Amino acid sequence: MKQIRIPKPLIIVLSTLVLCLVLYIVFNIAFSPYWDSVYAPMGYFSLASMRQADSAENKYTKQEACQDLDYLVKFIGRVHPYYIEGTSDTIMNLLQEKKDSFGDEVSTYELWKSAAEITAVVDDPETLVMPSFKQNYLVDYINKVNAGYALVSVNDVDINHILQENKRYFSFSSESNGVSLITALFQSKEGFSFLNIDSTNLKIEYLSPDGKIIFKNYSNDDYYPYDEAVNNIDAVPVEPYTSFIDAEKNYGLITLNSCEYDSDYKKFVYEFFGKVTESGIENIIIDMSNASTGSSQVADEIIMYLPVDKIKTLGGKLRMGPYLMKWDCENQRINHYDDMLFHGNVYLIISEKTSSSGTMAAEMFIDNGLVVSIGSPCGSMPKCCGDVAVFQTPNAVLSFQVSTKCFDRIDAAKSDLPLEPDIVCDNGESLSKTIDLIK
Fold this sequence. Notes:
13 helices
């Protein structure tokens, strides 16, 4: 039999590839915060996939419920930067308290509430727990919120009072942030059940966009399962970013409704500053009053058109297994678009709806002294956590997300303070106030 001889260079290449694969797997198992996560960002790997619980009415044995809470706490301790030296005694004591409180049979809601109390103790609004069972949605409520209606009360109880009664289940950095978290539960019958609100005889008080108070009663017939709800929800398309030039009033407006950072956004900003240069206007307004999730790099892209050579960037910490990777707020050199540099005045509008990545992007402008800011304090703190990994408990399939990073505020002297504007005014008046300043 003729012996096949493999060339030595090919052996070296194959050996190198095998070694790289082994190192990649070891890295993910030992260090990646996304190992066992139901999704993994580019560069990371996980075998887990999203599952769904059968029903909100499921019951679990005490052993199963305790196993789920242990699983939750294990991943909080393994992934969150706060617990690099071990899970806190506060969490461990609460865990034991909740396990001891279980009877022989545990409902989904009892387990969900116990898990929510534990994640709330982390004191990080981005670390939270939600169920994965199919829900029944209050479509009319969702449609009203999409149309700009604000929630005032439920069954004659003020929304802020409901928040205070249930605050042990939530971690929030401001009252507006807390209201946003709790009103997300008002989308479904199951959310009302979590808050012990009678969903079969419901009266909701709304504030309409034109300032009128409206009351609406709901019954069981107003809830739709997901498959039907998606066909009855009036989805109001919201552009992630828009722009407008008013040459007569000498300003350009760029509105960021979210922080979507991609090639389309880069093109959008380039075209906006092209129009600004062509029109010769002397003022720019950046409206971030509704900006939240996404990437704070939306600010970096705009700063490239401003006449500043260096800016301070966000510092922070990343949890990688038993290690905490730190980086400081550093001076970063800016690569300019020299032919379109804007030398005029820049105004920034923020509000309590500015949160998460929106707050971090606004911080880039404010703490580097690039803008005059107007509005109300941001809904989340600039010193915060984020970049979550998502997991699911083994029995009740509760979905929970845990932050993998913590971010430091650029202006260390204001580290524990909210991001506040230079000029405070009501949210509805921010744009007109800014235009008056330009005049």
